[in-house]
## 1
Amino acid sequence: MSVVVIGQSSEVLAAKPTPTPTPTPTPVPQACAVMPCRYLQIAYTNPARIDVLTTQSQWLATFTTNSYSVKVKGPTRTFSEPLIPETTGRPQYTVTSFVWVRLMASKFVGTVDENWLDTQLANNSPDVVAMSMQYIPGAPPIYNGGGLQIAGDSGYGDASGADFNDYLPVTWAYGSFGGNDAPESSELREMDCSGFMRMLFGYRESLRTPNPATNTAGGITLAAYSNNRPGIAFPRVSADQCNPSQGVGVYVVPYVSGQKPSSYGNLTMGDLVCFDADTNETGIDHLGMFLGVDSGGHYRFISSRNSLKGPTMNDSGTSITGAPCYSPSTLDGCGWAPDGWRSAVRP
């Protein structure tokens, strides 16, 4: 099986001319921290990671060094989105995968916790990807135990950008690392691209696994710890979320200014995909979350887009530079997203 996109056939990947899949690296056996091991462990590089397999060599999970997110095998599911006026005329693609994305309470540093993995293999509660679909057009409202709406159809926000706390709405206390951020009343139920990712990887995960060190977030904190160690907070803006030296995670497709990647690298579901979408500027100004290879063979992502008024995995029916270009939510083809794609980060 190819390690480029777990759960997708090599035939599908080979059908895409450019960028090209990265060749499967030579596996290196990984010793267990506690013997005897119940699972097989295979180490890879670029990025450094460990695939966990059954004794029959069936893939169970991928742990990536310096990343909070773990790719775990689960029940196969299909993601789709309803047709809206802005997407009229475009095919409605779906993404089917058995990869689930879970967050650990701290970065993976090389030792697989098999007990934690057992828990996640049996966990059918919504993961980060499933939660992302709770904000697409027509998504019903979801409330926490206190009656606060934490999910449901989301807009994008105005030019200043709407954060997760604008959507909720709540005042978020960052203490000495930013004070109190009050929600904008005009941006109720709205999130921009980076606010959407902070909602998923920060706030929603904080409801699942509170971090006692900050009492603010679970796997990826929204505010720095009191000693302000670098690389532990999920930043506010897309450029920093896509820069591991400023935020969290590791590159799975390295960033090169002004250049579209020549390879999909080891891109998998749940990775952040980063774009230079504004032709008048240089640098990352948009991001989304990779979903996988869709039913049409396209490399599809979900993001909160101003043009489609909020979180979506759909393509706009609007032509950008003439047929066959349009406004896609894909990394391949033509249009602003494929042309502006620059890197991918595993948070």
## 2
Amino acid sequence: MIFDNNQGHGGHMSSLTFDQYKQDETVGLAYHERDGHRGAGLTIGDRPDWDITPVLELSDQISRARTPQARKAIEAQMAAYIKSKPGPTSADRVYVGKEDGDALVILSDRQGRPRLKLTVAAAGSPAIEMLDEAGKVTRRITGQ
């Protein structure tokens, strides 16, 4: 559980997440507000089958690195470790929520790229969008 009430900077957020065993967050519920924009939703992610403990340890080393050169060397170690692992890394696959009054369902591919969006705008107009790998809308269906 995370709570952040950063009133001085106009932002608030809270979240409840569940981790996959020896992995990162795979299910999350969150609310956020910043500069008058509000959102809340459920996110479901894919996580790799390999243990991320070495990545977390390298990330900690990066945060403690004293020089840009040291940081860059550790980042290279982390990139090599992740590249050596099979399959895709982490990606958010499903989002169900609301953003500034619009209701959304976003389904993404294994690389985390949105491919299908269902929206009901705050004013009530529905839309279905299909997107290609680059995020370009290839088909849009509206109800009005």
## 3
Amino acid sequence: MTKDEYITIPQLAKLIGLSRIAVYNKVKKGEIKAIRIGRNFAIQKRYLENIQGNELKEEDKIIIESAVKKTVKDYGEVLRLLGKE
């Protein structure tokens, strides 16, 4: 483990545009994977793509595809009319 492989909560907060508290809460809830070093947390840089939303998990893709299909089924005509405007 090297120092360059990790970032701190304040660094991540600045990168993703959230407050430190919001990032800390996400870490505590398990939404952001981090390790504890003493009183601080460190986030592996390899998780940044996922955290920033640049990488989707397969289950996320399935959920999104399902939502799109439902939306098109329920509101297809409205979407077509809006597309003509």
